[in-house]
Structures
1.
Amino acid sequence: MVGGTAALTALVAGCSGAAESRSATDRSSGQVSHWVDTATVESVAETLQVRIPATATQAKAAHLAGLQDDGLIMAFVLPTAEVDAFVAQLNLEEPLSLREQALARNTTPSTPFSHLGLPEPDLSAKVREGQVCAPCEDNLDWLKIAVTQVDARTSRVYLSGAD
């Protein structure tokens, strides 16, 4: 019986290695989550209950399906002059705070923006960030926002949530 268990464990370990390229594994529980290939900016915005401004550019989004909660991320670039109006329509629990320093490099979010080819807002300095809601309406558990400056005229808005 021990040999059969060892063979099954080896088989499962071999299969999970192949899936790592498109999946993320929760190391503590051994459960596998996966990126939803059919996720669009529109579908993620709807789930996050966010209306993307018409002037937004470079919009990207992803949906990480998990066994208990799903991770949702979305980012887009806005003219800096329009960021405050976008933030105001979110009805944040508290005003955005300014984080001057980047967080520790070993801080890895469960739904990383690097999946979208973007820098992690946690690893940036001078980030305006805050909690939009927790709990939120419908099935949305929580929603957070971070805003970084891209250049002298534009800022990137990062939204992350759990459903």
Note: The CA atoms of residues 138 and 163 lie 9 Å apart.
2.
Amino acid sequence: MNNFKINNKFQSIKDLLLDNIIHFNSSGKFFIEGQRNAIKLFDIDGFVVNVKSFKKPNLINKIAYRYFRKSKASRSFEYASKLMEFQIGTPQPVAFFESFDLIGLNESYYVCEHLENVFEFRAIVQNEDFKNREEIIREFTRFSFQMHQKGVEFLDHSPGNTLIKDNKDGSYSFFLVDLNRMKFHSTIDFQTRMKNLSKITHKKDMIEVMSNEYAKLSRENETLVFETMWKQTADFQFRFHRKKRIKKKLKFWKK
């Protein structure tokens, strides 16, 4: 059994898109070939789409994604659609596809518009000499603040999951990707907001700029914003590196 849902705006390419998804393994051009997920690009009548193939779930998740919770592909489409309604940047959602066997979910795909001429926020973190670096950090902070104001908590708010487009007029546009983990609230409290920014960067100079801008927007005390954001970042870094050490030890003992 298959489940295919497409954005009404793209009904005209429905058949071609479905054919490309079904023949994902033998067609398209690899954009990312990861160990867990793969992304391919397909040109459909001059419109380039980005098709993400999620890793086949294990037995427990096969059943869970069939009966108890929505698949990553389904959630990505749903959350992207909500972001569009909230006027929060994300590549335009096109469709999602799920195939099921007798046990549960077998394969799943999320399709969105492919963005050209963009770069990851990660580039800002890694390159301290990046052109207009401070202004981009401040614009990104404003983008994040507006997202929080609208009740959106992006659980994977990390430097690789925000794409940036230089508008060539001194401004920048921001687009969230990898959307399958999100929460939507009526309001978001201060601690949750600061925690939501804890994965963005470990660099103190960036935290100083972000906290300065966030304090101006939220009218919170700047010292409080900086100290809270810095503590949340330090806590995340501790957990992240502890997890890496544990994984490294487990791999050693498996050898």
Note: The two ends are 41 Å apart (CA to CA).
